[in-house]
Amino acid sequence: MKNRKIIFANQKGGVGKSTLCILFANYLAWKKQDVCVIDTDLQKTIKMQRRKDMELYEGQEEPYVVQDFDVQDPETMQQLMDSASNTEGYVLFDSPGNVSEDGLVPMFTNADFIVCPYEYEEKTLDSTGTFVQVINALRQHTPEMTAKLFFVPNRIDVRIGTKNELDMWKQTDAIFKQLGAVTPRITARAALKRINTVEITAAQREAVKPAFDFMIRRMKE
Ligand SMILES: Nc1ncnc2c1ncn2[C@@H]1O[C@H](COP(=O)(O)OP(=O)(O)OP(=O)(O)O)[C@@H](O)[C@H]1O
Ligand SMILES: [Mg+2]
């Protein structure tokens, strides 16, 4: 199968980068696709979760590899990206918030896709806008950069939505659509708070299916 390097990124903290990275890996593994995760976040959220899971699910085989990686200089990151390019299937990267760090540049310039979760909330939209500017600046400096952007509206509270809010949501999506693809929304729900790196429940699959099927379809094109 073709290789795809996919970075979960947004300089805004807590928007669901690690959560969606784990869920996407679980979803792909459930669909019997080749997938592995590289955890470049300093907090090592995913690697630590996997460790916990392996104690809990003692004896069970890991459905996919989770590899942690300490971001240092651009040369080492380039080597990581080169070896990721030689890996079959989907290679997912969870990234730290600070996108402007030098060592991270090769991760973005070598990516096939950048998945950017966001919420409809003023501060988040500001940081997401800044994040997009950083990505665009990288594109200008790096003609060989081809990464396509997916914007994933996450943690949507379906109960709220005054006319003003709905208008803001619409305007935001219209802006992001000019820069990449906006996926179907992922709602806020308790089932998505209780995740592990071993299996995906039916309720979780149902919550992420529209967004993830949309991404998978586009990633095959
Ligand atoms: N759709 C959702 N529904 C409910 N809770 C969610 C959803 N998405 C994320 N969360 C919760 O939001 C919190 C932040 O998510 P997560 O840690 O994935 O964000 P992050 O972008 O990786 O943060 P950081 O920048 O710190 O790495 C977590 O507690 C997670 O469980
Ligand atoms: Mg995280």
UniProtKB/TrEMBL annotation:
Species: Hallella faecis
InterPro entries referenced in this protein's UniProt entry, alphabetically: CobQ/CobB/MinD/ParA_Nub-bd_dom, DNA_Partitioning_ATPase, P-loop_NTPase
Alphabetical list of CDD domains matching this protein: ParAB_family
Residue ranges annotated for the CobQ/CobB/MinD/ParA nucleotide binding domain, each copy included: 6-171
Protein name: ParA family protein
